[in-house]
Structures are given as structure tokens and as C-alpha cells.
């Protein structure tokens, strides 16, 4: 199998869209769009993110030891594109949750402290201990097969 076939197969897994953000003192906030995120444990509350070795945010995460996972709402495609490097002339203002930078309007803002990191292949996995969460009641932005999508409400027919 070649790299393209592998990427295409992985793109068949429907995911939400997140922006991972961190803040380094004196350097400001850094972020990246990611769909490689999952929950790991309820007790203690842990999540994992996966960061490519060439990503600029990698060294920032290793230095700051904090991050947030911002699960984007269906009206935040532009935010995703900014942090994916597709829109270069726009910026995003950040709020803070438990001292970590978060994106206003995200359906979930998850503040984390790095508890461990593991290098696997061409990525580093960061395990984050969740320190706080803020939720919004909105629909998620979804990514499938290389395209942004949104959920459509199921129509329930009563007889």
C-alpha cells in the first residue's frame, strides 16, 4: 500500500474538528487544526493528541506543558482553516480557561496539562490531564473524506 491509499483509508473515518492551542510565555498563543484526538481515561480524566514531528507547535507544547483541545462548532470552518494554514491573513482572538488559551464559541473547550509524551513513528503523542472543561450547546464541525461536513437532524416520523 502507498501513502496516498493509507491517507484515503484514514479519511474514511468521520471525525470532529479540533484546534489544539498552547501558550508560551513571551511568545503568545500557538495553535493547529487536528482531528487526531481522543479520550483516554475517566479516572483520572485524560485525553491524547497526536502532533506531527514537523509541526511548529511541537516544541511549544514541549516547552509550555499545557494545551487546550477546542472542538469546533459547525460555524467555525474558517477557524479550522486558519490553524490549518489555509487562511494566512486572518487571526483568532483567544479566551482562557484555567490559564490555557481557548477558542470562543467552540462546542467544547478542554484545558489540559501534559502528563506524558511518547514518540511513535513520525508523531508525538501527548497525554493531557484535564483540568477544566467548558461546553456550548451547538452542532459540531465534521470532517470526512477530505471535506468539511455538518450533521443533519434526523427526521422522526410518528405514526
UniProtKB/TrEMBL annotation:
The lineage of its organism: Bacteria, Bacillati, Bacillota, Bacilli, Bacillales. Keywords: Oxidoreductase. One of its GO terms (biological process) is pyrimidine nucleobase catabolic process. The keyword Metal-binding does not apply. Residues 10-150 form the Flavin reductase like domain. InterPro entries: Flavin_Rdtase-like_dom, NADH-dep_flavin_reductase, Split_barrel_FMN-bd. This is Flavin reductase family protein. The keyword Chloroplast does not apply. SMART domains: Flavin_Reduct. One of its GO terms (molecular function) is riboflavin reductase (NADPH) activity.
Amino acid at each position: 500500500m502507498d501513502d496516498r491509499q493509507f491517507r484515503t483509508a484514514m479519511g474514511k473515518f468521520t471525525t470532529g474538528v479540533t484546534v489544539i492551542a498552547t501558550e508560551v510565555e513571551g511568545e503568545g498563543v500557538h495553535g493547529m487544526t487536528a482531528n487526531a484526538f481522543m479520550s483516554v481515561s475517566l479516572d483520572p480524566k485524560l485525553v491524547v493528541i497526536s502532533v506531527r514531528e514537523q509541526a511548529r507547535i511541537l516544541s511549544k507544547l514541549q516547552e509550555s506543558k499545557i494545551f487546550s483541545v477546542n472542538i469546533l462548532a459547525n460555524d467555525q470552518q474558517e477557524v479550522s482553516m486558519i490553524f490549518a494554514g489555509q487562511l494566512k491573513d486572518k487571526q483568532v482572538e483567544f479566551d482562557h480557561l484555567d490559564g490555557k488559551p481557548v477558542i470562543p464559541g467552540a462546542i467544547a473547550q478542554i484545558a489540559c496539562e501534559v502528563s506524558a509524551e511518547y514518540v511513535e513513528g513520525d508523531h508525538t503523542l501527548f497525554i493531557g490531564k484535564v483540568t477544566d472543561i467548558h461546553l456550548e450547546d451547538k452542532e459540531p464541525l465534521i470532517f470526512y473524506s477530505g471535506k468539511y461536513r455538518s450533521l443533519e437532524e434526523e427526521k422522526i416520523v410518528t405514526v
